[in-house]
Amino acid sequence: MLAPEQIERYVENNGMVCLYCGSDDLSGSEINYGNAELTQEVACFGCGRQWIEIYKLVSVKEVSNEVS
Fold this sequence. Notes:
Layout: H1 4-12, E1 26-28, E2 32-34, E3 37-44, E4 50-55
Antiparallel strand pairs: 1-3, 2-3, 3-4
């Protein structure tokens, strides 16, 4: 089971290194939508472990509609 510290460190590193071994040799599957969240399966080629990333909407930013 993942410790809260592992998850926190992974999020702080923007998901760029393995939760378990620290390798940056990761591969993500297609992103899926369901239950108001996006998920993506991730695999580490360094240690062979897999997990699921969960993405949620946290904010929005206005886009300027001005024509140049």
